[in-house]
Amino acid sequence: MLKGKSAIVTGSTSGIGLGIARALGAQGANLMLNGFGDAGEIERLRAGLAAEFKVKVAFNGADMSKPEQIREMVAAATRELGAVDILVNNAGIQHTAPVEEFPEERWDAVIAINLSSNFHAIKAALPQMRQRNWGRIINIASVHGLVASTQKIAYIAAKHGVVGLTKVIALETAQTRITCNAICPGWVLTPLVQKQIDARAAKDGLSVERAKTDLLAEKQPSREFATPEQIGALAVFLCSDAAAQIRGAALPIDGAWSAQ
Question: Among 37, 95, 97, 155, which is most buried by a count of CB atoms within 10 Å?
Fold first, then answer.
């Protein structure tokens, strides 16, 4: 379905971003990966995806907190893959603390990576999408773009911002063949979430399995994690013609968390 299209997926060396990159690659899209990690492992991942899906796969290590590096990543993808047709803004970090104890530098970092990076990447990629009159912008927000929880003030402010930013881009591109939507996952078992589970187990003296069950029971009525593969499948659907009039939506994959 996406043969001949090219996609940037930020934060795609693991977790949700990798799930989305794999789903897009399986549909024939060329890929620009982005993220942190061991250089050798990233190269193995890049080469493996290229071989598996028979598409061009490049990597750019842009730091999503630095606007000039984001702009260069978009330029590099355009040079190396020929275009940026699909932009998936997925990179994110987390920090938890009560507001009075929340370090200001962590606030700045979370806002920069989880919200501002989306703005900079869209601003850099949108002109060429307008030129071709086709594009798909998919922002990975969170159920925390729709509802709040304690001790996550920066993350929740950023993700609510992503949902608002998505609506503005959708309105500004409404009469084009460019769409912009947000996916709002609940708990997904990624390395980021596993860290939270491990911390909870250590703090409360629980087994990791029990900490996992308790985490789901608090918020996610299905009592099951969403998967990167499910999120990847939704991203592919949003790139399809069937989704051409889904614009400015915030689509939860959250096991009924936001239905409560």
Answer: 155
User: How far is residue 81's CA from residue 31's CA, in Å, rounded to a whole number?
Assistant: 8
Residues 108 and 104: their CA atoms lie apart, in Å, by 6
DSSP 115: I
Structure tokens at 118: 């989306």
Tokens linked to 27: 């549909």
pLDDT digits over 76-121, tens only? 999 999 999 999 999 999 999 999 999 999 999 999 999 999 999 9
- pTM, 2 dp: 0.94
State the angle between helix axes of 117-132 and 153-172 in degrees (0 to 180), rounded to the nearest 10.
20
Pick from 182, 198, 257, 258: nearest CA to 225? 257
Q: Which residues are catalytic?
A: 155
Nearest to 87 by CA among 158, 32, 162: 32
- List helix spans (H) across the chain: 15-26, 39-53, 67-81, 104-111, 117-132, 153-172, 191-204, 208-219, 228-238
Q: pLDDT tens digits, residue range 135-173?
A: 999 999 999 999 999 999 999 999 999 999 999 999 999
- The label of the residue with tokens 């994110």 reads 92
Burial class of 196 by CB neighbour count within 10 A (0 to 12, 13 to 18, 19+): middle
Query: What distances in angstroms separate CA 46 from CA 11, 36, 168, 192, 224, one per listed residue?
Result: 13, 13, 33, 21, 30
Instruction: Supply the angle between the helices 67-81 and 117-132 in degrees, to the nearest 10.
Output: 30
